[in-house]
Amino acid sequence: MTPPVLSVLPLAVPAVAALAFAVFGSRPAARWIGAASSVALLAVAVTLAYAVVTSGPGAALGGLLWLDAVSVFMLLVIAAVAVLATSGTPGHFRAEIAEGRAGPRTAARHGALVQAFIAAMNAAVLAANLGMLWIAIEATTIITAFLVGQRRSRAAVEAAWKYVVLCSTGIALALLGALLLNYASSTGGGGAGLNLVALADSAHLLDPDVTRIAVVLLILGFGAKAGLAPLHAWLPDAHSQAPAPVSALMSGALLAVAFYAVLRVKVVADAALGAGFARALLTVMALASLAVAATLLLAQRDYKRMLAYSSIEHLGLVALGAAIGAPLAVAAALLHVLGHGLAKAALFLGAGRVLQLTGSSKIASVRALAARAPVLAGGAGLGVLALTGLPPFSLFASELGIARAGLATPGMGWATTAALLLVLVIAGTLVWHSSRMLLGAPADVPGAAVAPVRTDTTVVVLVVGLLACAALGVTVGPLDTLLESAADILVGAS
Amino acid sequence: MTETLYAQALNLAAGALLLTAMLILWRRELAMTIRVLAAQGLALALLVAVLAAREGGFELWIAAAGLALLRAGLLPWLLWRALAESADGQPARETRPLVDVASSLLAAAALALLAYAVSRPLVELAPSAATRAIPVGLTVVLLGFFVLVTRRRALSQLVGFLLLDNGITAVGFLTTESVGLMVELGVSLDVLLAVLVLRVLTTRMRETFGDTDLDELRELRD
C-alpha cells in the first residue's frame, strides 16, 4: 500500500505552486515555479507508479482517492505533458512580453491557473467516485475557459464562449448519466453508489435498461470533453486560440483525462450490458471523429487548427482501441495517449514559437521555415512525422498494436480497416501541409525578417519531447508491467 | 403528509417546472425569460421541499433552501445584472432566433413525447409518485437543449443552459432519496462557477464586440 502522504501530493504540489505564483508571480525568478512543480509532480507520479506496481492498488484520503494502475498511469501522462508545457512557458512569455502582448501580471495569473488546471486533472484521475470525477472534470472546463480567452481578442473570446457552452453542456449530459447510474445502483444494485471499484464489481446487478441510458449519456458527455465527434466542435477553436502552453496541456493531457472517464464508465457498461453496447457506441464515435478530422484537414489553412484536428484523429484512434477492448488494444490505446501527449504538446509549443516568429497562424504565410530556423523546423517536421505514426516514435507502436488487435477481433475488422484508411489520408494531408511550411526557398519579399532565429528553450523542449516519444517507441521498458495491469483493470480481468 | 396530498404537491411542482420551461421557449424578451427562470428555480425548490416533507430528511431541506437561494435568487440576479449592463441601446429581445414560435412549440411537444418514451424504463425500475415525475424533468432537459441550440444571443444561451441544468437537478432529486449532499453541492457550485465564467465572458465580449450577439461569433470556422 502506498504511503497516504504520497497519494495526496499530486493535488498538493500544484496547489502550493499556484499559491506561490499568486504570491511571487510578478518576480522574474518566479517564472520557473511551474516547471519545478511539474518536475516534482513527475517524480511523485513515478514513485506512486512504482508503489502500485509492487504493492497493489489502494485507497487514500479516507476513501476519496483511489490509486490503481490506470490512475497512476494517467498521473504519469499528466505530469509528463505538464513538464513539457510548463518548461516551454517562460520562453513563451518572454517573447509575448517583449512584443507587448502580455504583462508580468498576465504571466503570473497564467502560471497560477495552469497549476490549478493540473491539480484538477490529477484530482479527476485519482477520484474514487464517479461524482467526484465529474466535478473535477467540470472544474477543468472552468479553469481553462480563462486560459483559452487569455488573449482577449475577438477570436479568443469567441473560442472561450463556444468552449464553455459546448463543454458545459456535454458535461451536463454526463452528470445526468451519473445520476441515472446512481439511481440504478441504489435500486437493487448492491449499494455501490458511484464508487468506481464497487460499481464495477456489482455492475451485473444493475438494471440493464436504465444503465443503457446512463451509459449513452456518460460516454457522449465525457466524449464531448475528449473531443470525440459528434460534440467535437469546440476543440479546433479552443486549441487554436489558447496560448501555446495551454494548447499543449489541453491537447496532450486534458483530452486524455476526459477519455479516462469514458474508460472507467466502459468497465461498468461491459459488466452490466455485455461488451457489445459500449463497443458499438465507441466505434461509431471513433470513426466519426476520424472522418471529421480527415475531411476538415484536407482544406485546412491554419496550422494550429491542423494540430487540433490531429488531436481529434488521435483521440478517435484511442476510442477505437477502447472499443476493440482486447487487453492488447487497451494497453496500446493507453500507450497511444502518452505518445500523443508528448508529441502533440511538443508540437503545440513549436507552433506557438512559429506563431511568434511569423505573426500569423496561416499555413500560407509560413514559408521556408527550415532556412530561417533550422532546429525549430526540423523539430516540427519530426513531430509531424511522429503524429503520422512513423517509427521510431511510440505512436507507431501503439497504432500497430491497435490495428493488430482490431483485425484479430471478430466484427471489428471492417472498422479497423476503415480507420486505417482514414489515418493514411490524414497522414498524407499533414505531411503535405507541413512540407509547404517548412521547405522551399526563402521568399524575397522586403520586410520579411530574414535574420536566422537563435535556438531557445522552446526548441529545446520540443526536441526533448520528441526524444521521449521516440525512446518510448523503441522500448516501453518498465512501463510494460504498468500498462499490462492497467489494461487488465480496464477489460475487467482483475 | 398523506399519500394523496404528497402526490398532488409533487405534481404541482413538476407541472410548474414544465410550464416555466414552455414559457421560456415561447417568450422572446430577455427580461421575461430571466423572470420565468427565477420562477422555475422556485418550482425546483418546491419540488425538493415536497420530497423533504415526505422523507423528513434534514439534508433535503437544506438542499431545497440552497436551490431556492441559488436558482431563484443568485443566478437570475447575475443574469439580470448582465442584461442591465448591456441594455443601453440594445433591444433586450431575442431578435433573430433560428426557429419561430410556432415551430418551437411543436418541437417542444415532440421533445416531450421523446422524453416520455425514453424515460419508461426509469419509471418502471421503481414506480412511485416521485419517479413518475422523471419524464417531466427529462422534458425540461430537452427543452433546455433546444433553447441552447436555437437562440443566438449569449444571454439566451445562458438561460438555455440553466434550463437544462434545472431539469437535470430535478431528475437527480426524483431518482434517489439521498443524492449525496457532496455531489449536489459540487453540482451547484459548478453551475455557479460556469455562470460566473460566462458572465466574465459576456463582459469581455461586449468590450471586444460591443454586443453580446452571437451572430458576431463567426470568425472561427472551417
TrEMBL record, chain A:
Any GO BP annotation: ATP synthesis coupled electron transport
Keywords (alphabetical) are: Cell membrane, Membrane, Oxidoreductase, Transmembrane, Transmembrane helix
Q: Name one GO molecular function term.
A: NADH dehydrogenase (ubiquinone) activity
Q: What class of enzyme is it?
A: oxidoreductase
Parts of the chain that traverse the membrane: 6-25, 32-53, 65-86, 131-148, 160-181, 213-234, 246-265, 277-299, 311-335, 369-391, 411-432, 459-479
Where would you say this protein principally sits, based on its record? membrane
Q: Where in the cell is it found?
A: Cell membrane; Membrane
InterPro entries per record: ComplexI-like_HydComp (IPR052175), NADH_UbQ_OxRdtase (IPR003918), ND/Mrp_TM (IPR001750)
Q: Gene Ontology cellular component?
A: plasma membrane
| NADH:quinone oxidoreductase/Mrp antiporter transmembrane domain sequence ranges | 127-408
What is the membrane topology noted in the UniProt record heading this document? Multi-pass membrane protein
The record, for Pfam families, names:
Proton_antipo_M
State its Enzyme Commission number(s).
Answer: 1.-.-.-
Name the PANTHER family for this protein: HYDROGENASE-4 COMPONENT F
Q: What is this protein called?
A: Hydrogenase-4 component F
Species this chain originates from: Saccharomonospora amisosensis
TrEMBL record, chain B:
Q: What class of enzyme is it?
A: oxidoreductase
Q: Which GO terms describe its cellular component?
A: plasma membrane
Localization, UniProt: Cell membrane
How does the protein's chain sit in the membrane according to the entry?
A: Multi-pass membrane protein
For this UniProt record, give its keywords in alphabetical order, as a comma-separated list: Cell membrane, Membrane, Oxidoreductase, Transmembrane, Transmembrane helix
Segments spanning the bilayer are: 6-26, 33-54, 60-80, 101-118, 130-149, 158-175, 181-201
Query: For this UniProt entry, what is the primary localization, expressed as one broad class?
Result: membrane
Task: State its Enzyme Commission number(s).
Answer: 1.-.-.-
Q: Which GO terms describe its molecular function?
A: oxidoreductase activity
What name does UniProt use for this protein? Hydrogenase-4 component E
